[in-house]
């Protein structure tokens, strides 16, 4: 910074440093306040052995039990995962994956059989998982129009620039616009139980209650159209990759159609990492003592609409039970146990070191 | 600039009372405008100025990048909000400053002045005064423009001005009009005055003016002596008339207002380097990620296009990588936080206020509080290694007391009785009713000698009562007040007064004294005035009996050469006495007289008149004439005056040297005086192995002496320690085996070096300076005597250059300004010698002893706080920013941010700024009195231990470690975790909220660990910031905001949804523990195993005080002949004899009580006697106007007193 020039006031001013006796000048003694004299009362913590070492032990003693609890809980959670991408030729979906074209009207269906060795108690959550799918790419993340998704009519016909290049189809604006919506996961998964006498029964899948409450009730709203979605969306085009327009996502349930279709909402909540899972369906616990998913053979019927092989992606089905802390998560428990143990050990080591050098310190005088 | 003006206009013509004629030249009006802006230009001009700052331009550049949609990785407001905040804070400050400047401009421009228009005086505003107008000034008025003095109410067209506003000198100066115009007494005559002035164009030389007045077909040359400059105040003159020559911006005052650069601290420089490194680091990271992006787009992205097409202009992966580079530059720019510079300024400002507010640096006698005049240097106060101190007025009070004398070979003043511990103070009142009650003397032998009428003693005191230029004032009978130019002279005249030779009054031709109760009037025939070359002054008086006698007093070296040969015996005794006095640290003068016969006087008088009238070489001719008569004098004796030390000086020096600060005294004084002051303030002690004195006059002898000093020190040390190996000194090697720097450091404390000015001149030459520095730095104390102001600055520059150490210069006089300016930190003592030093300084206070508090308390704290602040600040921003880097590897290097954009915007300016600011302003490791008790606590600052490149890398490493933990722990936990209702937690928004919360908590815990002094502010800020984070986050994620701006608040519901999950809190706790536990363990170990002194002091709250410093020292080694050139300004003799300064020269002597004669005294009364000790060399002085800390006026002055009159001081613009 530069100091600049002359200040005319100075021609009049009195120099504080000047000792010229211009009469009685006021006392310039600074105020004797604790603030100005830097004598504010203050707490001055010191990292003494008395405070640090117990802290380590306390952290250790808190973390280890939590870790054990987490680990046990996590271990009690049952999880089953199966990849149905169809990479290898012996995979049932190999043909579907390999022969995929965007223009087929007849969807390819494949069936994957699997066996659960343990019964799944209580509610079972069914996820689809994608790998190597960059939902967190910057251009992907921003490629949406929340105003449009919130039912704003002007945004419906004139979506945000962020949606490019999935903003308009010809002259008609796309609803929902953007790359996220365009790439909506559209495989249909149906689960069958094959019981011991080979009779196949479809497992009822609940498709509501899989999205965030705020998403479903605040963030996503259908445009006002007097209850008729077809009318509301009449000036819009369907996303390029979609087989059917947005108002036909779940034509049977008006509470789950259009923008507030929960599968759509779930997809629109982008994942943080390229490998992710999204909640697909919930298998409600049956009344009585029978497990939700008893052990035995199952059959997964896949309507294979969603190509991932082109970019080396993978698709999985995950079945999982849930505890108070969510799904299976062994890392957290192990991490807690590890950190707790390290803290405890550090505490011990520091205690030893401190005792070994203790004498020297207390006797040491302050050099002046 | 100056040359340009010369070229533009060779001369200026001004015709009095002729506005039409003068308007042709379009001279500037007297309206001044120091303000920079008006309402319309403020925004553009201010913004333009601010964007000249590199940092601001950089952020503007980022902002522009963000507006490109393909690059924009952050919303525009993430940069513009902090930038706007910073810009508006600065703009508000600038606007306030400018508002006050407008106000003061208006005030000045609207001042009334009386302008002579068409023969009558009319009130006009200053701004309406035109060049060529004649204006009337009254007593105590400011001069409105640069005026040619036309006439005054005083005799001879004299008028008196005070130039304190212009050059800071508080003594009064005399201006005289050209004789022809001085007769134009009244407005009517002046109205018809139509002289034309042709003069030089506007320039900034305060002491020069050349022009010619053409009037009635005659030429009169004009000099600076005829000019009244704007900014001066008319004093002691009823009224005067002046012709406006330069107005407004053309005035010398305005021409001198320049800009100057602020000093920068070493932390500043380090910070700038580090910021550059960080930029480099930023570019590297950008490159790495861009390469990653290229690879990713090639391998994955191109295949992924079915779901995510490339942006329109992007057609290949390389272009995408190029864009990605810029995108990453945008999101990683927070490693260089925009708030860094602002925060640093705020902290420094706070520290400056603490200095200003410190009661313990307030001097109640002079009602002066310490003042931080520069707010940017505070932390450097904690790193000072070398202090360069002036002696007079800094270490000493510049109060002189008549202490001893030698009369005709008999020494008085030594209290001989060793049994009497408290010698009795002599009471003069019964003997002499006119005695000064404040005068102290203890030896009654002298009084006896006066009483018995010893002729030599009488003649001695008669000389003291006659040979001086003191003015007296007698308000009522017997109540004498002396106004002396220098305190020495005042002390001598007061001594004579008390011993019965009372100087009563003077007229141009007479001096009236009361000698032993009898009033005697001497006629004053001549004053042979003092100057720095002559180093003596004489008067020639005729006593009532008609005998003519020359009385002379002067430096012994000069005077003893001019004695009559018959004085040999007295001279040798007196010389011994002089030696004794000098050894005691007293300032000595020798006194002599010479009887002149009437013929001799007549003859000399003739030659003197001839010399006086000479137009060329008048000075030399006068000096020769003086020399001619000051011969064959009879020695009367010598006087010794004590120069009192300032309060607490020895203690302060002791404490500062315990703090490992090396103190060099640079003084214009004699070697002996300087050495003695060295002893009395405990810089030199008898414990010292040797005090080396270097006083060679030739290059060879100086080199020889320096080598022998080095050899001596080396042998001594080698003998004691058996040698050692250390790193070599930088700089050119001195011829003897290289001094080993650590060896040299070890031996310090044993030796002291005293070097004379003329030797120093050789030592400072390029080939010897390295040798000099290494030798001098091996000594504990260094005293340079007889140095010129320029040499003072050279010494400072030398140390700056060779030792790379922080230097501090402290002084009070104009001769210290050069060193104050060149040292890293300049401290001005507001004391006896006016305020020039203060105006040029960075810090000012009124007592030397406050220096220990400034350095050891304020400086130390400032350094500590700044270091802790910077460490934390860099840590925090790396922890914050580097998370994006790690995330880059998982998001296809697409420059996706980890956090919500609002979080990025607010993190540095809201969530984390105040706790660290509070720490930077309030933190204390040990209380203030501890740092004074344990000066060693100061050492970390000198060694630069608390913030250096190593510490910086540690901070950075810790920051990066934290960022790794903050990214990978949530990554590992959340990638598979689900909410308790089965919804996966691995969505982007949950991840962002988790990481951000963990980050805020971790950096808050870190500041909790770093803060050592928890005042209420720290508590409020730390907990408040943490609380504000949650409140703001919940607000931003609320449904209300989303409903209003659905496209701006994408994160609706995230906070609520995420923070309700126990897994998220477990993740945050885990991340915090992993980040903090190693830090805690490391700090504990450091504290436990290698405690710093401050830690120990902090722990041991009750410790015994350290033993008091060494006792007073006894005898010291012999020193050579002393002599003292007194600190006069010349010119007063001339003024006295001309009688110009005495109104009623023709009236009776006794009428001093009248209004007129006392007016001169009255004015002087309001001044402090101003003593400048210029040593012939040019003094570079820069006078700084006192004003708010960013805007200062710099005038500079190049003073030389060797030339003629009182006002001969050469000013020169430095900047």
UniProtKB/TrEMBL annotation, chain A:
It is a multi-pass membrane protein. The keyword Nucleotide-binding does not apply. GO terms for biological process: phospholipid translocation. This is Cell cycle control protein. Residues 1-31 are annotated as: Disordered. The keyword Transmembrane helix applies. It is found in: Apical cell membrane; Cytoplasmic vesicle, Secretory vesicle membrane; Golgi apparatus; Membrane. Belongs to the CDC50/LEM3 family. It comes from the Eukaryota. PANTHER family: CELL CYCLE CONTROL PROTEIN 50, CELL CYCLE CONTROL PROTEIN 50A. One of its GO terms (cellular component) is Golgi apparatus. The chain crosses the membrane at residues 46-72, 331-353.
Automatic annotation (TrEMBL), chain B:
It catalyses: ATP + H2O + phospholipidSide 1 = ADP + phosphate + phospholipidSide 2. Its EC number is 7.6.2.1. Its cofactor is Mg(2+). GO terms for biological process: Golgi organization; phospholipid translocation. One of its GO terms (cellular component) is plasma membrane. Belongs to the cation transport ATPase (P-type) (TC 3.A.3) family. Type IV subfamily. This is Phospholipid-transporting ATPase.
């Amino acid at each position: 910074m530069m100091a600049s020039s002359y200040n005319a006031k100075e021609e009049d001013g009195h120099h504080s440093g000047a000792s010229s006796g211009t009469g009685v000048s006021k006392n310039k003694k600074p105020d004797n306040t604790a603030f100005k004299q830097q004598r504010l009362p203050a707490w001055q913590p010191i990292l003494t052995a008395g405070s640090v070492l117990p802290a380590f032990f306390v952290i250790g003693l808190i973390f280890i039990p939590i870790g054990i609890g987490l680990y046990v809980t996590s271990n009690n959670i049952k999880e089953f995962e199966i990849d149905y991408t169809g990479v290898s030729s012996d995979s049932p979906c190999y043909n579907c994956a390999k022969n995929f074209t965007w223009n087929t009207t007849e969807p390819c269906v494949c069936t994957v059989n699997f066996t659960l060795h343990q019964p799944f108690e209580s509610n079972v959550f069914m996820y689809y998982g994608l790998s190597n799918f960059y939902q967190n790419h910057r251009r992907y993340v921003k490629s949406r129009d929340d105003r449009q998704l919130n039912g704003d009519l002007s945004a419906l016909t004139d979506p945000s620039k962020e949606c490019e290049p999935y903003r308009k189809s010809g002259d008609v604006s796309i609803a929902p616009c953007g790359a996220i919506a365009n790439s909506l996961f559209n495989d249909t998964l149906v689960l069958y139980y094959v019981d011991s006498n080979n009779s196949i029964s479809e497992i009822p899948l609940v498709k509501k209650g899989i999205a965030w409450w705020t998403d479903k009730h605040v963030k996503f709203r259908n445009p006002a159209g007097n209850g008729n979605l077809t009318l509301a969306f009449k000036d819009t085009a369907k996303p390029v990759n979609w087989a059917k327009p947005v108002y036909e996502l779940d034509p049977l349930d008006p509470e789950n159609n259009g923008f507030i279709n929960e599968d759509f909402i779930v997809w629109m909540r982008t994942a943080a990492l390229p490998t992710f899972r999204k909640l697909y369906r919930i298998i409600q616990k049956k009344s009585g003592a029978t497990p939700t998913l008893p052990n035995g053979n199952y059959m997964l019927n896949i309507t294979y609409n969603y190509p991932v092989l082109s970019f080396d992606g993978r698709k999985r089905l995950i079945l999982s039970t849930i505890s108070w802390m969510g799904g299976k998560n062994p890392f957290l428990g192990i991490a807690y146990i590890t950190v707790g143990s390290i803290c405890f050990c550090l505490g011990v080591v520091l205690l030893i070191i401190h005792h070994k050098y203790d004498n020297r310190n207390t006797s040491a005088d302050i050099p002046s | 600039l100056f040359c340009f003006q010369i070229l533009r206009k060779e001369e200026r013509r001004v015709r009095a009372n002729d506005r039409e004629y003068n308007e042709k030249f379009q001279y500037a009006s007297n309206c001044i405008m120091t303000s920079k802006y008006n309402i319309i230009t403020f925004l553009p001009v201010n913004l333009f100025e601010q964007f000249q700052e590199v940092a601001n331009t950089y952020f503007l550049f980022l902002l522009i990048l963000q507006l490109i949609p393909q690059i924009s990785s952050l919303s525009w407001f993430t940069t513009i909000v902090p930038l706007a905040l910073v810009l508006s804070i600065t703009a508000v400050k600038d606007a306030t400053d400018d508002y006050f400047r407008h106000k003061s401009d208006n005030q000045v421009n609207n001042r009334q002045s009386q302008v002579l228009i068409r023969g009558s005086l009319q009130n006009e505003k200053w701004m309406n005064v035109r060049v060529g107008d004649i204006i009337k000034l009254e007593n105590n008025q400011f001069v409105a423009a640069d005026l040619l003095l036309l006439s005054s109410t005083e005799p001879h067209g004299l008028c008196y001005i005070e130039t304190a506003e212009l050059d800071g000198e508080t003594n009064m100066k005399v201006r005289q009009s050209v004789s022809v115009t001085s007769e134009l007494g009244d407005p009517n005559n002046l109205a018809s005055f139509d002289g034309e002035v042709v003069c030089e164009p506007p320039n900034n030389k305060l002491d020069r003016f050349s022009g010619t007045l053409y009037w009635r077909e005659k030429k009169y040359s004009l000099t600076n002596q005829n000019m009244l400059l704007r900014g001066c105040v008319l004093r002691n003159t009823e009224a005067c008339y002046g012709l406006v020559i330069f107005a407004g911006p053309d005035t010398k005052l305005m021409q001198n207002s320049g800009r100057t650069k602020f000093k920068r601290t070493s932390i500043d420089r380090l910070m700038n380097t580090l910021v550059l490194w960080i930029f480099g680091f930023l570019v590297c990271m950008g490159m790495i990620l861009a390469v990653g992006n290229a690879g990713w787009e090639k391998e994955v992205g191109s295949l992924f296009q079915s779901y995510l097409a490339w942006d329109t202009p992007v057609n290949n992966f390389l272009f995408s990588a190029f864009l990605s580079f810029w995108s990453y530059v945008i999101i990683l720019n927070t490693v260089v936080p925009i708030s860094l510079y602002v925060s640093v300024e705020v902290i420094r400002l706070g520290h400056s206020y603490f200095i200003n507010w410190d009661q313990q640096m307030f001097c109640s006698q002079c009602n002066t509080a310490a003042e931080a005049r520069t707010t940017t240097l505070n932390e450097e106060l904690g790193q000072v290694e070398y202090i360069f101190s002036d002696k007079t007025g800094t270490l000493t009070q510049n109060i002189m007391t008549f202490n001893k004398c030698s009369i005709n070979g008999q020494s008085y003043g030594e209290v001989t009785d060793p049994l009497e511990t408290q010698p009795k103070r002599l009471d003069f009142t019964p003997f002499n009713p006119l005695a000064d009650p404040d005068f102290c003397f203890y030896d009654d032998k002298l009084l006896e000698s006066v009483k018995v009428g010893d002729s030599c003693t009488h003649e001695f005191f008669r000389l003291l009562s006659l040979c001086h230029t003191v003015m007296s004032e007698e308000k009522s009978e017997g109540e004498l007040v002396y106004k002396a130019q220098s305190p020495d002279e005042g002390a001598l005249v007061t001594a004579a007064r008390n011993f019965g030779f009372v100087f009563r009054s003077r007229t141009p031709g007479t001096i009236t004294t009361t000698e032993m109760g009898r009033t005697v009037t001497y006629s004053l025939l001549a004053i042979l005035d003092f100057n720095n070359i002559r180093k003596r002054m004489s008067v020639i008086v005729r006593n009532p009996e008609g005998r003519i006698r020359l009385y002379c007093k002067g430096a012994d070296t000069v005077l003893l050469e001019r004695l009559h040969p018959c004085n040999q015996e007295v001279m040798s005794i007196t010389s011994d006495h002089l030696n004794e006095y000098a050894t005691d640290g007293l300032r000595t003068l020798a006194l002599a007289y010479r009887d002149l016969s009437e013929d001799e006087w007549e003859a000399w008088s003739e030659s003197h008149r001839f010399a006086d009238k000479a137009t060329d070489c008048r000075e030399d001719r006068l000096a020769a004439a003086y020399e001619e008569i000051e011969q064959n004098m009879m020695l009367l004796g010598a006087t010794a005056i004590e120069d009192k030390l300032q309060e607490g000086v020895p203690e302060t020096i002791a404490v500062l040297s315990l703090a490992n600060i090396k103190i060099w005294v640079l003084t214009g004084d004699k070697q002996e005086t300087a050495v003695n002051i060295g002893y009395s303030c405990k810089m030199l002690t008898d414990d010292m192995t040797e005090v080396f004195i270097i006083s060679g006059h030739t290059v060879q002898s100086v080199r020889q002496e320096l080598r022998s000093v080095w050899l001596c020190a080396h042998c001594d040390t080698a003998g004691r320690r058996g040698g050692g190996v250390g790193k070599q000194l930088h700089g050119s090697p001195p011829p003897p085996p290289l001094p080993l720097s650590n060896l040299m450091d070890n031996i310090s404390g044993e030796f002291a070096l005293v070097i004379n000015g003329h030797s120093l001149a050789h030592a400072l030459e390029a080939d010897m300076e390295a040798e000099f520095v290494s030798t001098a730095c091996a000594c504990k104390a260094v005293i340079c005597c007889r140095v010129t102001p320029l040499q003072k600055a050279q010494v400072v520059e030398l140390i700056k250059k060779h030792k790379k150490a922080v230097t501090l210069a402290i002084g009070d006089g104009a001769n210290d300004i050069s060193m104050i300016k060149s040292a890293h930190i300049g401290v001005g003592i507001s004391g006896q010698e006016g305020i020039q030093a203060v105006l040029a300084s960075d810090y000012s206070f009124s007592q030397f002893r406050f220096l220990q508090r400034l350095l050891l308390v304020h400086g130390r704290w400032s350094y500590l706080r700044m270091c802790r602040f910077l460490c934390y600040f860099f840590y925090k921003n790396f922890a914050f920013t580097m998370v994006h880097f790690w995330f880059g590897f998982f998001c296809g290097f697409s420059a996706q941010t980890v956090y919500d954009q609002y979080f990025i915007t607010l993190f540095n300016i809201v969530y984390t700024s105040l706790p660290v600011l509070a720490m930077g302003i309030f933190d204390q490791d040990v209380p203030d009195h501890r740092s004074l008790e344990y000066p060693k606590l100061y050492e970390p600052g000198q060694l630069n231990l608390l913030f250096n490149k190593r510490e910086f890398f540690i901070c950075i490493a810790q920051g990066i470690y934290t960022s790794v933990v903050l990214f990978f722990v949530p990554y590992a936990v959340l990638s598979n975790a689900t909410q308790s209702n089965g919804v996966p937690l691995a969505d982007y928004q949950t991840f962002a909220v988790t990481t951000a919360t963990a980050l805020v908590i971790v950096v808050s815990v870190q500041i909790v660990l770093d803060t050592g002094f928890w005042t209420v502010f720290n508590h409020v800020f730390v907990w408040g910031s943490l609380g504000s984070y949650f409140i703001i986050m919940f607000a931003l994620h609320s449904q209300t905001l989303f409903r209003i701006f659905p496209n701006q608040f994408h994160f609706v519901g995230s906070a609520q949804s995420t923070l309700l999950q126990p897994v998220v809190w477990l993740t945050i706790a885990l991340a915090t523990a992993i980040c903090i536990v190693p830090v805690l363990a490391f700090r504990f170990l450091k504290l436990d195993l290698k405690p710093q002194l401050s830690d120990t002091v902090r722990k041991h709250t009750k410790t015994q005080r350290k033993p008091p410093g060494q006792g007073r020292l006894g005898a010291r080694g012999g020193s050579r002949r002393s002599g003292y050139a007194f600190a006069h300004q010349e010119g007063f003799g001339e003024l006295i004899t001309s009688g110009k300064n005495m109104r009623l020269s023709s009236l009776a002597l006794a009428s001093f009580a009248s209004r007129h004669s006392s007016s001169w005294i009255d004015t002087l009364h309001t001044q402090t006697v101003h003593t400048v000790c210029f040593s012939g060399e040019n003094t570079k002085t820069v006078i700084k106007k006192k004003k708010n800390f960013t805007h200062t006026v710099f005038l500079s002055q190049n003073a030389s007193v060797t030339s003629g009159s009182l006002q001969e001081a050469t000013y020169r613009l430095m900047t």
